[in-house]
Amino acid sequence: MLSDEDVQTNSYAKRTGNVLEKSDLFGDDCDEINLENEDTPPSKLRLHSSTDNETNTPAVINSIEDHDQYINNHESNHYAQISPEPVPTNFRVQIREFEKRGDGMTAYIVYKVETEVNGVVGYTKQHYETWRRFSDFLGLHGKIVEKYLVKGIVIPQPPEKSISALTKTKTNSDPAMSREVGIQRARQLERYISRLIQHPRMRNDCDVRDFLTIESDLPKAVQTAALSSFGVKKIFKNFQVVFSKMAFHMEEGDRWFEQVQSQVDELDEALRKLYAVAETLVASRRDMATSGEQLGKALSMLAACEESTSLSRALSALTDVTEHVSTAWGKQADIDNAKFSEAIYEYIMLISALKDVFAERVRAWQQWQDAQQTLARKRDQKTKIDLSTGGRNEKSDQLKVEIEETVQKMDQLEQHFGELSKAIREEVTRFDSERKHDMKKMLIEYMESMITTHTEMLQLWENFEPQANNIQV
């Protein structure tokens, strides 16, 4: 843990020390943490938990229950979490159904968003059901980013647009292809909206509430278009950031932020490597499932032409074992993808969101420095005018007013920088206090699924052993 002296080692940290001591944006005290410290207080390590809910409901064409029936469904407690406070059990969002509407290039998928809520301000009923398009989720995200990113809030990111998913939905007439897209995206969207409502600031947001409660269709989210004004503004803003960094390079003087950003970069790199390996693992398991099916067919053909009754019977039994093992590998591949690979990717996206607030802090510092330079330039202009005219004049008085306005603006920017820095510290605390618990849960679920799969395979081979021993030679 860094000392107060370490926190204020540079000039701007000293100047904002009085700001950091003020009440923060959320009304909580600022807790400094070391990401390597294992002694995080238990009060910061509370994790949302919910009762396991497995379903045996038969599959229907527009439901993803059939996809999850062989996966231990722990509802939303496998989602990455940011808030240190546990999610209330009476505020839960699920997406369990979807349907394709329209044909051809006008086709799209809508998702049924079911919300269970009680005791949360602004919600008058306990159950809501709404149908939302993928673009509605992206539109909501755009509104949240505009309101909360400048305040240093880490905003979960929705699934990205996919050309592959767009093609399967609009140009493919095979229902299975659209259903594949719907299953995966419904799972990702449920994770996104569940993480969103976990944050104490965004839980009561009016846009989030409208998204979950208004049954009618929402206005079309134009920000989601590829060449929308929102997208153009984002591109222009990125160019502004690049040029600002060239003009005002921020030498990080706060050791806490320097250490955290270094550790976040290392974590990001490690998770990206792990994600690449996890994707390869999923692909390999699916290849094993496909190869097992082919092996089963070949063994079946061999058993059919075998003259020895005992050997033919053993080959037929081996065919059944191979097919069951192939099915088990296919299920394990789906579990690895849903609970391991996608969970890793969620954290990669969360780290990206964390880097966004770091960049926002740099932008706030650059605006403060720009105001300081503007103030110095106006003061220099006023001094030259006063010396050249030998006294005050109209232009000098105008500069005096502008100087006073610039000083006021500079003070506001300084205060904003201090408050933003403190808010980011709290967001890092939330992120770090849940990261280890989420990683532990992910690894335990992965281990349990592997034990279940291998136990099933072991039982299959043990049952086959007597058949092999009964082959007469």
UniProtKB/TrEMBL annotation:
Alphabetical list of Pfam families matching this protein: PX, Vps5
Coiled coil: 396-423
UniProt cross-references to SMART domains, sorted A to Z: PX
Keyword Transport found: yes
Primary location class: cytoplasm
Signal peptide span: none
Keyword Membrane listed: yes
GO biological-process terms attached to the record: early endosome to Golgi transport; protein transport
Superkingdom of origin: Eukaryota
Annotated PROSITE patterns: PX
Localization of this protein: Cytoplasm; Golgi apparatus; Membrane
Keywords, comma-separated and alphabetical: Coiled coil, Cytoplasm, Golgi apparatus, Membrane, Phosphoprotein, Protein transport, Transport
Record's bilayer topology term: Peripheral membrane protein
Region named Disordered: 35-55
Gene Ontology CC: cytosol; endosome membrane; Golgi apparatus; membrane protein complex
All residue ranges annotated as the PX domain in the record: 89-219
GO terms for MF: phosphatidylinositol binding
CDD domains (alphabetical): BAR_SNX1_2
InterPro entries: AH/BAR_dom_sf, PX_dom, PX_dom_sf, Vps5_C
Family from the record: Belongs to the sorting nexin family.
Name by which UniProt lists this protein: PX domain-containing protein
Species the sequence originates in: Caenorhabditis tropicalis
